[in-house]
Specification:
74% helix; mainly alpha; flat; three-stranded antiparallel beta sheet
Amino acid sequence: MAQKVEQIDFVWDGVDKAGNKIKNRPISALSETIAKADLKRQGFRVQKIKKKPKPLFKKVQKITPADIAVFARQLATMLGAGVPLVQSFDIIGKGHENPSMQEMLLSIKASIEGGNTLAQALREKSLYFDELFCNLVEAGEQAGVLEALLDKIATYKEKTESIKKKIKKALTYPTAVIVVAVIVTTILLMFVVPVFEELFKGFGADLPAFTQMVINMSNWLRDWWWIVFGSIGGIFYTFFYFKKRSYAFNHALDRMLLKVPVIGTILNKSAIARFARTLSTMSAAGVPLVEALESVAGACGSIVYAEVVLKMREEVATGQRLQFAMQQSNLFPHMMQQMVAIGEESGAMDAMLAKVADFYEEEVDNLIDNLSSLMEPFIMAVLGVLVGGLLVAMYMPIFKLGEAVS
């Protein structure tokens, strides 16, 4: 495999063909000598050239899966328009708004120029391009249908990212509202309730039981706030620690989430949609079923489904039909099993699975819309109990102020 070569950013001063002076114009090249040669070939006379200084505090913009999806669509469009591969990377890379993405794409371009295939160049960036992406690109290069495969990859990425965004959107709003409600409640208990407590001491009467309970909660929180916040911090730290390092923890968490009402249904149907979409894309690319199932397992977005798909792969490898392997798993619905059976009989597996993916993606969309509608009254109830309850507790003694004074 050819050694990966990184381009260097330079700035230069000089004179153009018309004799106009140029200052601090950027150029990227493999070395200063190559940069000077490129400028001379274009008719510029270089007077001074140096490496572009790096900022002291560089803000690194992350490369997101959405960036990769957009890149796949752009590259498919470029190749479809007849633009050569290397030139396509140059155009997409230099025109990208994300500096990190721009740097990565130009690095891939340099790797291709060094003699690597596109699949080999992408595998050097395995943090952003998974095995499924690379395998499909490799299949497209070998079959001479890279443009068509990139179009399928782009569609696949766009569909899966769309589902992810909708699920996150559905869960973000209620989570944010509840977090804000808890913060407001904490502020009221620690700073507002003590002011009312001092006021109530001058009433000379017993406080209502609900008000006294809130004051006791406020006193306890002010005395032991470090235990409360320390415990919350410890819970979050422990959760993310085991989520990053423990397969057993992630498996148990995934299994639990799949059983949660409404949310579990969304996650189940989302995993089925991603399974169908991924397998459809790989089947259309001509990837053998046994090999495809290994990549599909990692694309389901669920450890439970990934384990089942790998078990199905072993059964298919022994000669069993995919429909029967799915039937034994008890995870895939009957309708999907029948569609797969029709696909196996007719030899149109990719088309059948694409229809299944479309159906379950629409189901996920509808469930998410319904979830948003169901969450609104729940959120109002939480806000009413937390914030409204505190306000009622504080004003109950004031309603009895005339009785307490007399």
